[in-house]
């Protein structure tokens, strides 16, 4: 892991444990516009989110996606897509739930191909948070588990992912309570306590105390519906006092109020429970989310109904109907995700098959069919300038005859690598068959292409333990005249061969007039 990546991981921990402003300042020293590491753009986005500027965070995520593409990082790209989708969902922007789902699925498949652990971990967590925002709890846990396994044991990340796991189970329980599935809800509060206590035990690094206190609140909330409600109520109160003193946002703490009220009511203190909920309802953050608002309001209605409030009973009936509808909507979304994942997998498999069909199995470069298609495609823009090369290997038969076909195959792979190393990303190198290659160089004149060909000759000559060299013919043209240019390049290549090979020559009309 590079020093910059390590620094990004450290700043992310800072940004999420109450020191967002400091993390933002340090991240911005690495950035200039869209330039800079994608991981630092992510630090900036998370810090801006925790500082209450979600629109600026979305802009930061746009820059992060650009940086991730430039740096060829599928993990950071997936992280950017998933986090941006979550933000746009909260802000009511973007393409709604369908667009968010598609972005999350695209991100999930992208992250699966990441090899850098920091990018992979943050990508996994971003996808998990996106599914969590949509209340698709069944899809969340596996990503937190993967992030946990990939994170080093000596920093605060593992505690973060364990706490996130605990929080997810608490939210899941709140929603199950809403629809009357009490036993299932209690099974999730038990799992929440399990993960929260693990987070307490595994908190490490400079921010260990912050994560320990955060996890203690989750563990206390998880015990509200079990054997020691009085103890749970006291622990929730203490954890809230500590976290509020740390500057933890009201949004991050809002989930705890229904659990606090339940613990107080079950320990024989209904007046205190009602007072907690009245304050919680009055102070509900605008971005608390439907579930927290509904759970807070419903818990208050339960307490009022117990006092004989007819209005509370009517409100509960309406709220229960709404909760059941939201649960059904959630289940339909879950089915949609599975269908969309299947389609995405088919699309990826189709693309992989198409790429495989266009590749030469021996060398891994384009094959004859792919080259012919590229020529036809280029001819649709007849005025475009380009150059073609025909490359033939010298002394190749000698390798096969003296060292065998396995050595010949190894030589062809080495030659293809040497040729490709001298080309630009937009150039196309193909194996036409046997020991013959061809190259398309769009937008490049013949004089410049000849210098490229000369470097290719030197690169092949420098291959260790390989007696083969190459003869290269070069012809510049406009795309509409490509077939003739290929013939001219072929003639130039044979002229080099007749002169002993191991060289490159540009086709010129005067040289072939005879």
TrEMBL record:
Xref: SUPFAM superfamilies? Nucleotide cyclase (SSF55073), TPR-like (SSF48452)
- Mind telling me which PROSITE patterns this protein's record contains? GGDEF
Q: Which residues form the signal peptide?
A: none
Q: Known SMART domains for this protein?
A: GGDEF (SM00267)
Report the residue ranges that make up the GGDEF domain in this protein: 384-509
Q: What InterPro entries is this protein classified in?
A: Diguanylate_Cyclase, GGDEF_dom, Nucleotide_cyclase, Rev_trsase/Diguanyl_cyclase, TPR-like_helical_dom_sf
> What NCBIfam families does the record tag this protein with?
GGDEF
Q: What is this protein called?
A: GGDEF domain-containing protein
What organism is this sequence from?
Answer: Paractinoplanes durhamensis
